[in-house]
Amino acid sequence: MTIADIKKTAEAKMGKSIEALKGELQKIRTGRAHPGILDQVQVDYYGSLVPVSQVANVSLLDARTISVQPWEKGLGAKIEKAIRESDLGLNPSSQGDLIRVPLPPLTEERRKELTKVVRHAGEDTKVAVRNLRREANDQLKKLLKDKAIGEDDERRAQDDVQKLTDRTIAEVDKVVQSKEAEVLAV
């Protein structure tokens, strides 16, 4: 493995960490509805648990209401029960085949709790990025120990990895700040 390979691998993994953070933050609901909120809700479908989006059409009726249209007749009650029992705090109601999921407006207290969740997710991502930096530095030290590179090359490569880490952590902070602003906006 060369210095370039180590840097490229670290950069790719740090990019994946940011994508994972963005995916995690998308699950945190703000005042507006979006179909992705129900992605983590699992429904019992012939003995196996599957996401709601795989057994029903999930769409928006308006800014605060999600509609769920099951593809099979008997699934309505199971989907409604799964949404009600999820930790999202939603109360679906069925109207014939259609299930309406109104999103209650967020209280100020709930918004503050959600900002703490957002910050925690950001901190977890920063820890992951720092672990990736440590892995890259360990690989560089191993190359030095095996006499594949010189001390100057190792020092320069460690500085590059540190700069990459700093850029990635700054990006994490930006993502977290924008999500906090979105959560706190009324």
Automatic annotation (TrEMBL):
Which of UniProt's keywords are assigned here? Cytoplasm, Protein biosynthesis
Q: Give start-end of the signal peptide.
A: none
User: Where in this chain does the record put each Ribosome recycling factor domain?
Assistant: 21-184
Annotated localization: Cytoplasm
The family database entries (InterPro entries) matched by this protein are listed as: Ribosome_recyc_fac (IPR002661), Ribosome_recyc_fac_dom (IPR023584), RRF_sf (IPR036191)
Its function, per the record, reads: Responsible for the release of ribosomes from messenger RNA at the termination of protein biosynthesis. May increase the efficiency of translation by recycling ribosomes from one round of translation to another.
The UniProt entry's sequence similarity note says: Belongs to the RRF family.
Q: Write the protein's name.
A: Ribosome-recycling factor
Source organism of this protein record: Pseudaquabacterium rugosum
